[in-house]
Amino acid sequence: MTDILSIPVTLADGRETALSEYRGKVMLVVNVASRCGLTQQYDGLEQLYEQKRDEGFVIAAFPANNFKDQEPGTDAEIVEFCRSTYDVKFPIFSKISVKGRDQHPLYKALTSVVLPTTGDGPMKERLRAMGLELKDGGDIVWNFEKFLIGRDGKVVARFAPDVEPLDSRLVSALEQELAKG
After folding, report:
1. For residue range 14-48, what is the model confidence (pLDDT) as tens digits?
2. Which of 20, 93, 121, 130 could hold 5 in an S-S bridge, CB 3.0 to 4.6 Å?
3. DSSP 8-state class, residue 34
4. What's the pLDDT tens digit per position in 114-158?
5. Are 36 and 67 contacting, i.e. CB atoms less than 8 angstroms apart?
6. How many CB atoms lie under 10 A from the CB of residue 130?
7. Backbone CA torsion sign across 134, 43, 171, 75
């Protein structure tokens, strides 16, 4: 099993880093997009971040253009959109691919962890009704899929794209991880 925290990533400002920069914090890794029906989740993500960051919580947003060209912008355009539209203060990383042949190593590692996806089902049904083919397995289904990573760097929960950031199931799992201090 790959140490998720050691995988090289790049912040939207071009700085090379790894999620180990946040070691000891509880992290929510989210693949995001600016032109998606779920984009308003930035609001809830920012609220959650503001409420819990002093307890050792961070959100790592990874823009991705894997679904219907819903994230066409450059890193600078994405950051500007997030800050001006949703006043986002959590870290935004450089755009990556979250599925397919060019899938980023971080998402290879995240999707290789076998966990049930909380809220799985309704979003898949809507996507299938729109004529999209979905593979069974660990693939990312759509934008705004969420992975909760404990202070030890292990993935502890996965949430479907349409599970809102302030959903009681997500908040409860987050609070359990934060309580582990």
Report:
1. 999 999 999 999 999 999 999 999 999 999 999 99
2. 20
3. T
4. 999 999 888 888 888 888 877 766 889 999 999 999 999 999 999
5. yes
6. 8
7. positive
Tell me the domain boundaries of the chain.
4-179
Which is catalytic among the residues 36, 113, 127, 178?
A: 36
Residues 6+ apart with CB under 8 A from 51: none
CATH of 4-179, one of 3.40.30.10, 3.40.50.1100, 2.60.120.260, 3.40.50.10490: 3.40.30.10
CA–CA separation, 120 and 141 (whole Å): 10
Q: Each residue of 45-58: b (16+ CB within 10 Å) or e?
A: bbebbeebeeebbb
Give one DSSP letter per residue of 39-107, joined into a string.
TTHHHHHHHHHHHHGGGTEEEEEEEB--STT---S-HHHHHHHHHHHH---S-BBPPB--SSTT--HHH
36 is catalytic: yes
